[in-house]
Specification:
The protein has 483 residues and is an alpha/beta fold. The chain contains 14 helices and 19 strands. The chain has helices at 34-38, 45-53, 81-98, 120-132, 150-155, 170-186, 214-227, 259-275, 277-280, 289-302, 321-328, 342-349, 409-413, 434-437, and strands at residues 2-8, 19-20, 60-63, 77-79, 103-108, 137-142, 158-161, 191-198, 232-236, 249-256, 286-288, 307-311, 334-340, 356-361, 373-383, 386-391, 395-400, 424-427, 445-450. Strand 16 and strand 17 form a beta hairpin. The model has no long low-confidence stretch (mean pLDDT 96). Bound molecules: zinc ion.
Length: 483
């Protein structure tokens, strides 16, 4: 049994001005193939897939040359047509030269936006199908921020989407993809799917599955999976920062040759999602930055620390709105991780701990990043990726080359920083930080904030310059009836 393994993932914020280029996918270790690809993420989708596939002695995995996640992380815009065509073109050539295959595993994200390719994941599946033929099976794993419609499962047979945000079950979904792909190839599982789009669009900060109603809908999907053998239910939240035609919520149901059951469960899930629409779009309180910093100050005075101040909306990493307000309101004992600034990261390479620091930081990337902020202080850490500068009353600012999403306090402690010194943690994250700062019990106060003006990461989606999405087709931007 020969299974081709491919990886092509990005979560594209198409409103950012810097395209995700071919060069952004090429760095030491990327692209990779064979064992380097199969072993690259042991705790993630790939690790789960490879582990279960290799429980079967007759399975041979063939790692097809695949680019890693771009080095820009999620801080870059449209994937260029050149990049998409280059990597998918090489994949197709290698599938031809190393085939035939009984199946293919696509380790993808679902929120890629590529210039000239309206549905990149479905297009990848279509091209893979064209090479490996109609008899072979294609299984994929997805991030719940996937933007997908019926098109993907027209070309692929199976999809397994993460249920939780933070994404705790990536390895598990990889395991399931492997098990069901092997069973399908053996003739023991006949993939039968239904896809339903639910016309609701939400900012990602609202989609935390640790609170209702998002957690209730995840529970409903889990309950269906528990009730019926060989049923898999994907509840995809969608990713509104990619300006693509298939945004919004998606339900996919996979059964073993039971189209009526797939339809029934998909309709049940879709109706349950629709009934909760008002609560779904109001699931989190987001403060404007000045108010958020004032609330942080009050919590500090009351001793409700540590405090997390999360700017959920910064998509370039360069945003300085929160840094500016922290200085204006003279907040103290604050750790800021991070403000991205490639020029400052370069400048830090020429400095050493103890040196005086006097530079304008951040801003400039686009209007959503705001103005640079003048920081005068003392260099405390330098690293190839940036460094840390102490300023004000016990504040430490971490400067990075690219957008960094801090999800665990241990990411900061890894730099030798004593976390106990700080009372306020300022991070750029929407929900993933809950993993290390909330679910762990670390923070006493959590405040989600965004700038006063609705910039590109805002919950106020009506402020975004969509070209390919008509918000009037989605709740809460229209008064719709859903059949
Ligand atoms: Zn995600």
């Amino acid at each position: 049994m020969r299974i081709a393994v491919l990886y092509f993932s990005h979560e594209t914020v198409s409103f950012l001005k810097n395209d995700t280029t071919l060069e952004d996918f090429v760095y030491p270790g990327s692209p990779r193939r064979d064992e380097a690809l199969l072993s690259h993420d042991p705790k993630g989708y790939m690790g789960g897939f490879v582990q279960v596939a290799r429980e079967h002695a007759d399975v041979e995995l063939v790692g097809i040359e695949s680019p890693g996640f771009p080095r820009t992380g999620t801080g870059s815009g449209w994937v260029t047509e050149e990049a998409f065509e280059h990597f998918t073109g090489r994949m197709v050539e290698e599938l031809k030269s190393r085939g035939p295959f009984d199946g293919a595993y696509l380790c993808i994200h679902g929120a890629m936006a590529a210039r000239g390719v309206p549905r990149p994941e479905a297009e990848l599946a279509r091209r893979v199908r064209a090479v490996i033929g109609p008899q072979a099976f294609i299984a994929a794993t997805f991030d719940p921020h996937a933007n997908e419609d019926e098109e993907f499962l027209r070309h692929a047979d199976m999809a397994f989407c993460v249920k939780y945000f933070p994404h705790y079950d990536m390895h598990l979904q990889g395991e399931r993809a492997a098990r069901m792909l092997v069973r399908a190839i053996r003739g023991d599982f006949q993939p039968t799917t239904v896809t339903v789009k639910v016309p609701i669009i939400t900012a990602t900060v609202l989609q935390w599955t640790g609170a209702s109603p998002w957690m209730d809908l995840v529970q409903r999907a889990l309950t269906w999976e528990a009730r019926e053998p060989d049923v898999f239910v994907n509840f995809m939240f969608g990713f509104p920062w990619a300006d693509v035609p298939d945004v919004g919520i998606t339900v996919q149901v996979l059964t073993n040759g039971k189209p009526d059951m797939a339809r029934k469960i998909a309709d049940d899930m879709a109706q349950a999602v629709w009934r909760q629409r008002k609560a779904l779009v109001n699931a989190a309180k987001v403060y404007l930055i000045p108010e958020g910093v004032t609330l942080a100050k009050q919590a500090l005075a009351k001793g409700d620390t540590p405090i997390v101040l999360a700017d959920h909306s910064d998509r370039s990493g360069y945003a300085t709105w929160l840094l500016k307000e922290i200085i204006a309101q003279d907040l103290h004992d604050v750790l800021i991780a991070t403000v991205a600034d490639a020029a400052a990261a370069d400048a830090l390479q020429k400095m050493k701990p103890g040196d005086a620091f006097d530079l304008e930081i951040g801003g400039r990337a686009d209007e959503s990043a705001g103005e640079p902020v003048h920081i005068t202080g003392t260099v405390r850490i330098t690293s190839p990726h940036g460094g840390a500068v102490e300023f004000g009353r016990g504040n430490l600012l971490l400067i990075s080359r690219y957008l960094v999403q801090i999800t665990e306090p241990s990411q900061i402690a890894a730099f030798g920083i004593d976390l106990a010194r700080f009372k306020v943690f300022v991070i750029k994250s929407r929900v993933h930080f809950r993993r290390g700062f909330d679910d762990s019990g670390f923070a006493k106060t959590i405040l989600l904030v965004e700038p006063t003006e609705p910039f590109l990461g805002t919950v106020r989606l009506e402020a975004l310059p969509y070209q390919n999405v008509d918000l009037k087709r989605f709740y809460p931007y229209a008064d719709l009836t859903f059949p």
